[in-house]
Amino acid sequence: MRILAIETSCDETGIAILETTGALGAISPRAQIKVLADVLVSQASIHAEYGGVFPAVARREHAKNMMPLIIQALSEADLLRTPKNPRILGPKEKETLATIFHKEPELLEHFQTTLLGISVPAIDTIAVTSGPGLEPALWVGINTAQALGALWGVPIMPVNHMEGHIMSSLLTPKPAQNGKKVFSLSVPHYPALALLISGGHTELVLIPRGGNYEILGQTRDDAVGEAFDKVARMLGLAYPGGPEISKLAETAPRGQTLPEKLPRPMINSKDFDFSFAGLKTAVLYMVKKIPNLTPEIKALIAKDFEDSVTEVLLAKTLAAAKKYKVHEIILGGGVSANAKIRSTFHTTIARELPGVTLFLPDRTLSTDNGLMIGIVGLTRSARTQKTILAEGHLRLAKSATKTLAELRKKKG
After folding, report:
1. According to the annotation, is 198 in a ligand binding site?
2. Where does substrate bind (predicted)?
3. Which of 56, 255, 303, 349 has a C-alpha 20 to 30 A away from that of 322?
C-alpha cells in the first residue's frame, strides 16, 4: 500500500510517499511504515521581511514549488517513469482539469507540462491537508491532489492538519531499510491527552478513543507560536521568533532575574483555556519602560517569557491529565521543538505522573511536513471525496469554549 501526501497549510510545501503492508485503516503497532520520499521547501526566509506569513505570497510559492517537489518525491521513491509518448488528454479530462484549476491557470499549465510526460505511478491513494490553515495556500494542495486523483485514477482523502501533528508524535524510528527511514506507529492507551502548540494553535485535546477528539481548552487570543513571533519582534529578533527567543534565553546571566516577573496568564483559572495576548503586552510595556535594552536585559526578558509560557502550558496539561485520568500525553506542533518546553514536560510528568507516558515528536517532524499527513491517511479507509474544500478554521472537534474572536463575532 502506497500513499502520496500533500501539505500546504502555511509556509511549508511538503510532499511524502509512504509504503506499508496491509490495507488502509488497518495500521497496527507491528506494521512498518517505510518513507520512500519526504521532501519539503520552507518559505520562512521569504516571509521574514513581513514578520509573519503573507497568504498571497504563500500561495504563489506553493504553486511554484508543487510540481518540482512531486517529481522529486516520485524520483526518490523510484516511481518516476517516462513513457515513450506523452499522455494526450481527451476532452472530458481537459474539462475536468480546467474546472479544478479554474482560478489557477498557471498551476494548470505547470501540471500539464510536468505530469503528462510521466507514467502513472504505483500510488494507491492521495492524502491532502484540507485545514486548518491559510485558505489560499490550502487550495494549492487540494487542487493538485484532486487533479492527480483524476489523472491517475486514485482516491483522494482530506486530512485535518492538527491530527497530523498528533500522529507524527506517535512515530517510533526503526532501523533503516535500503537507505529509507522506517517507523512504527504507537497506538495510545486511551484516554490520552494532546497539547497542540504551533504558530496558529494552542489546544488541549482529549482523545477518549482512536479517531475521537474533544477540545478541552484553547487560546482565547494569540496562539503560543504567534506570541513567540511577536515578542521576538519587540526584542529585535528575526522571524520565526520561537528559535530566536530560545537561543537568546540560553544566554541569560545565571542568578539574575528581572526586577518584576512577567505574568503567568490564566495559570490558576479553573478551565483549560489559554491567553497569551496579555503576556505579549506585558513584554511590550517592559521594553518601553527600560531605556537601555542591553543584550543581558533582552536575554532575561526572553528567558522569563519562555518560562512563563512553559509554566502555563504545563500547569494546564497536568490539571487536565489528572482530571481525566489519562494514560498518555502527546505534544505536537512546531512549538513542541522548543528545548525548554520539552525538557520541562519530560522531567515534571515523570515526577508527578509516573504512570503516564509522554510522546514527543522528533524535532524534524514537529514542523509542518507531508509525512504527518500521510500517516493520518494510512489510518483511514480510502473513500473518494469528489469535492474537498479548503477550511481555514477546520477543527478536530467542537470546543466547549469560544475564542475572543468568536465571541466578538457572535456579539456583532
Report:
1. yes
2. 196-200, 229, 242, 338
3. 303
pTM here is 0.92
Tell me the sheet residues that pair with 159: 129
How confident is the model over 33-86, as pLDDT tens digits?
999 999 999 998 888 877 778 899 999 999 999 999 999 999 999 999 999 888
Is 161 within any annotated ligand binding site?
Answer: yes
Contact predicate 219/333, CB 8 Å: no
Q: Kindly report, residue by residue over 362-396, the tens digit of the pLDDT.
A: 998 999 999 999 999 998 865 656 689 999 999 98
> Which pLDDT belongs to residue 406?
52
153 is in an annotated binding site: no
**3-class DSSP state of 162:** helix
What residue spans of 55-200 are helical by DSSP H? Answer: 55-76, 91-100, 105-115, 135-152, 161-168
pLDDT at 23 > cutoff 80: no
CB-based contacts of 288-292 (< 8 A; 24+ apart in sequence): none
Domains belonging to the chain, first-starting first, are 2-169+366-411 (3.30.420.40), 192-360 (3.30.420.40)
SS3 content of the chain, % helix, strand, coil (to 5): 45, 20, 40
Q: Is 368 annotated as a binding-site member? A: yes
Query: Is 229 known to sit in a ligand binding site?
Result: yes
- Measured between alpha carbons, how far apart are the two ends of the chain, in Å? 50
90 marked as binding residue: no
* Residue 401, pLDDT above cutoff 90: no
The DSSP element (H or E) to which 129 belongs, if any, is strand 125-131
| 169 labelled binding-site residue | no
Would the annotation count 212 as a binding residue? no
Residue 106 C-alpha from the chain's centroid: 27
